[in-house]
Each structure stands twice: as C-alpha cells, then as structure tokens.
Specification:
By secondary structure, the chain is of the alpha+beta class. It has helices at about 10-20, 50-60, 105-115, 135-140, 170, 235-245, 260-265, 290, 295-300, 305-315, 345-360, 375-395, 405-415, 430-435, 450-460, 465-485, and strands spanning about 30-35, 65, 70-75, 75-80, 85-90, 150-155, 155-160, 200-205, 210-215, 225-230, 270-285, 320, 365-375, 395-400, 420-425, 485-495, 500-505, 520. The chain contains 16 helices and 18 strands.
Length: about 525
C-alpha cells in the first residue's frame, strides 16, 4: 500500500499502470538445466536431446505435445484419417504465424520436408519419415524428392500420404525433422523466423541460451513465462549446486549416488518417473576384433554386473537392461538376452568360456578403447565397466572422454571408435523407434551393424500391422540381441529437481515438458 501524502509524476503513474495490467507470471523467468551444449539448432541436423528440447520451444510441427506429454494439435488445428490410415488431411490454424508475422502455410511444410530429403544435405533424422510414401526411394536416390508423399492442397490444407498405415505417425509429426521452413530461411537457422512459443534472444556458447515469448504464436496469451533461460551444464553435480543456490528452477538430471540424500533432504523437489529410453554401449563392428567375433561381444556383455551398476553406481531408480527396447510400450514385450534370468556367477562363467572360445587375449591382454561424452555419470559407468571387464576377462580398457560435439562426430564417422557410450530416447512410443537405428545404411547406425535377415524383418514389419507387426519386430530384436552390436546396460528413468513453486510440470513417460506450459507461483511474503 502507498503511504498517505505520497505523490507520483505522470510518467511514473503510467509505468505503474502498465505493470499492474501485466500478469505477475509473465514478468518472471523460468531457468532450466539443459544437459550438454546443443549439437545444432538446425531442425535437420539436430540429434541430441538438448537440441530437440530447445527446438520444441522454438518451433512447432503439425502436431505438438500437451502438458502431459501426449500428442496434441499444433500448427494443424485438426486432421482427418483417410484411405484406411494411408492418407492424412491436415487443416492448418488460420492464426498460425511465423515470428515475423507471415502466415504458416502448407507450402512451408512441403519446403521443410523436401529440404530434409535433399540429396546434397539430407537430415540426419530423415529415417524417422520412412513411413511417408516414396521416402525410401528418395533416400536411396532412385526417385526425385518432388515425389515425396506430402502435398499442399491449398494454403491451409496439407495432405500426407503413407506407404502403409503407421499409427505412430502423429508423434513423428511433432519431431523437429517434420517442422516447416519459412520461405526466406537463411543458412543460419538461428536468424530465421520461427513458429513456436518462443524466439531465440541470445545464445552464449557453454553459458546460457535465452528465449523470449513469441507474440505471434497463436497461443501466446496462454504462455505464462516471458523468458526462459537454458543453461548447458554437463556435470550433474554442478547442476545440483546451482539448483540448491537458487539459480535453476528445473534440473535436467540428478547426480549419481545422491538419490537417497535427495529423497531425505529435497523430497518435494525430486521427480523420478519411468521413461522410454535405454542406455547401451555401442560396438563398432568395423573394428577387427569386435566385428569378427560375436563370442567376444557376448562375453563383454555378460561380464558386466548390471544389478551392481544400477544399485551402487547410478542409484536413482534405473533398471538393469537386457534388451534394446525398454518396457512400457503398449502390447510389446521386449526380446531380452537369454541370460537375463541367470545368476551373475553363471553369466560370468559363460563370459569366460566365450572369451576363451574367441581366441582373444591368449597371448596378451585384449586392449579396448571406451569413449564417452563429458558427464560424471558416463565417467562412473565407464570406470565401472572397465573394472568388471578387467576382473572377469582380463580385458584392459582405455577410457576416452570427449566434449559432446566431438564425441558425436567421432561416433558417426566410426574411424577411431571401438566401444562407445550409446543409447536412445524414443521419438515415438513404438519399438521401431529403437530398432530402426540398426537398419543397414541408417545414418544413426553408428555400430555399422548390417544383417540382411534383420533388415528383412524390419521391412516386413513396415508392410503389416497389429499383432503380426509386433511379432516381426520382436523377432528382429531377438536377432539383434543374438548378434550383439550393442550391450544394453540399463533402462532410463527421468530424474529432475523441480522448484515446488513450479506449475504445469507433469511427469510422463516421454519426459517432455514444453516451457509454454510452465509457470511459477509467487513466493509468499
């Protein structure tokens, strides 16, 4: 309350009136941990989760996600499913706008998708759109991109044609690879118009990324926070320190070994929830030893005590993994390694037998390199795995830590990699989101696994549906677990510390939390 006999000049009074008219939440900032520095904000080159999360705030596809992480209308206000699920007709929002005020049109989506399949510089995630009519032929270079199954019927009507029904397609249409591109898009997409709830205001590499509410966004009046600040923090311990100091409202993760302490000291802030993600070690099959000996690969897999790994080293609710596909996908039972029901003693005995059968390590200890990107968790996992390999098999391991972008590039090139940190978070809630990574020629197949039988099973699964499709996918995963191009270690859980004043944050299996839904309640005086 203003004390009696206090006067204000007209400019000050005007400023006060403006402040009173603006909702208090809009004058606030939400500060989020991001994990590693984003690899790219180009919708066709971004791979890492940090980049995808940022892009979901800056841009939007035909479909987006609601506050509970479920698919919801985005730039399309509605759609029809026609021709038995092989044709989708989308009606765009009449008020969908780019940040410069231009309308978002069907032609913008056609432009974006054609660019994703450009022969000169195709999107690294173009394979996510393989259900689209003629996508495989265009990727193979046997058909022109103009034949891709996407058509602008009129400025506000878009049709998407599929080669076979794909019930998960709506989730794919919420992924950055399917976003539209403005006709005046610049080479540097950071300067181009965007169509999401926020615009990019400032990016200070390795320090912070600031977003501002986009007034042209069709739902701008429902966006609570004017400003979102993301902080790339690769070390979870440093992120926890910044959260406890009040510098963050949401962390990307929690440090290994601190779960019990957090339960005891920050229980209201701690959010742990099942998550559609798997962590594994990738094996470069171009490596002479790893590529030629399936017995060696299986020996390495069985020598790792996963129960000890998740309980002692991680200790935040993770589950030991014996398959590439995690549990939680409707009507799908992952194809686990046959040894998953054995005791660890039995597994280690089998590991020794297979290692001896491989003929490696007889004259001198086998030496392997294990690469991982900068992270305290990844380092602990790498140290633990190398110790287990040494104890059980006598294998010596050189640990190589690399900054995220360097690590991703080395993993993609496959020249220097041997064993490397890997894993996947589902782009859509279907087992194919994980298994597609291992199809021959997939840009994300960083193990360089190539088995015609596996490819055939995946091809057949694309052409069918229902129970038969799930059976084919499970057979494909079983073959993958027999060939062992990767060693599954654990299934992810989402782990965040969240300011108890935060509103709009809902735990979900996709761990998607768009900033447009978040708000901060005013602190009590």
């Amino acid at each position: 309350m203003t004390p009696p006999n206090t006067s204000f000049s007209k400019p000050v009074l005007a400023a006060l009136v403006v402040l009173l008219m603006v909702p208090s939440a809009w004058s606030s900032v939400v500060r989020r941990g991001l994990g590693p520095e984003p690899d790219s904000l180009n919708i066709h080159q971004a791979q890492g989760l940090a980049a995808v999360n940022l892009l979901r705030d800056l841009r939007e596809g035909l479909v987006t996600f609601d506050s509970n992480g479920e698919p919801a209308p985005g730039q399309a206000v509605s759609w029809q499913v026609l021709d038995g699920g092989k044709r989708y007709r989308f009606t765009l929002r009449p008020d969908a706008r780019w940040s410069n005020g231009d309308p978002v049109t069907a032609a913008d989506f056609v432009r974006g998708w054609h660019h994703a399949f450009s022969p000169e510089n195709p999107a690294v995630t173009a394979g996510l759109l393989q259900s689209i009519l003629n996508a495989d032929e265009i990727i193979a270079g046997t058909m022109d991109v103009s034949m891709l199954g996407i058509k602008a019927i009129e400025p506000g009507i878009l049709e998407v044609l599929l080669k076979e029904p794909a019930p998960w397609i709506l989730e794919i249409l919420a992924h950055p690879v399917s976003y539209p591109l403005h006709q005046a898009t610049l080479a540097d997409l950071r300067q181009a118009p965007v169509n999401g709830a926020y615009t990019l205001d400032e990016w200070i590499p390795r320090a912070s990324i600031r977003l501002q509410r986009n007034p042209e966004y069709y739902a701008s009046d429902t966006v609570a926070m004017d400003t979102v600040e993301y902080f790339p923090i690769e070390e979870p311990t440093a992120e926890l320190s910044r959260y406890r100091a009040g510098e963050l409202d949401i962390t990307e993760t929690i440090p290994a070994g601190r779960f019990k302490w957090l339960q005891e000291n920050l229980a209201p802030d701690l959010h742990v929830h099942p998550y559609l993600g798997s962590f594994w070690l990738g094996l470069n099959l171009r490596h002479p030893a790893l590529g030629l000996s399936a017995d060696l690969r299986r020996a390495l897999a069985l020598a790792i005590d996963r129960e000890t790994l998740v309980r002692v080293v991680l200790g935040a609710g993770e589950m030991p993994a014996w398959s590439v596909v995690p549990p939680g996908i409707s009507s799908y039972e992952p194809a686990k390694m046959t040894e998953s029901g054995w005791t660890q003693e039995q597994r280690e005995a089998e590991a020794v037998r297979l290692f001896s059968k491989s003929g490696l390590g007889k004259r001198q200890p086998l030496m392997l390199q294990l690469r991982y990107n900068t992270s305290g968790v990844h380092r602990r996992v790498a140290v633990t795995v190398s110790a287990m390999w040494k104890q059980v098999l006598g294998v010596l391991t050189e640990l190589i830590n690399e900054e995220w972008k360097v690590f991703v590039n080395n993993r993609k090139m496959g020249v220097v990699t041997e064993v490397f940190r890997g894993g996947w978070i589902a782009d859509y809630a279907d087992s194919s989101s994980f298994l597609d990574l291992f199809i021959s020629g997939n840009a994300l197949n960083t193990t360089f696994y190539a088995n015609p039988a596996f490819d055939q099973l995946m091809d057949s699964a694309q052409l069918t549906g229902g129970a038969e499709r799930k059976h084919l996918l499970r057979d494909a995963e079983a073959l993958l677990m027999q060939d062992m191009p990767v060693i599954p270690l654990y299934y992810y859980v989402s782990r965040h510390l969240v300011n108890p004043r935060m509103t709009g944050f809902a735990d979900n299996v996709r761990d998607i939390h768009l900033s447009r839904y978040l708000g901060l309640e005013t602190e009590s005086p």
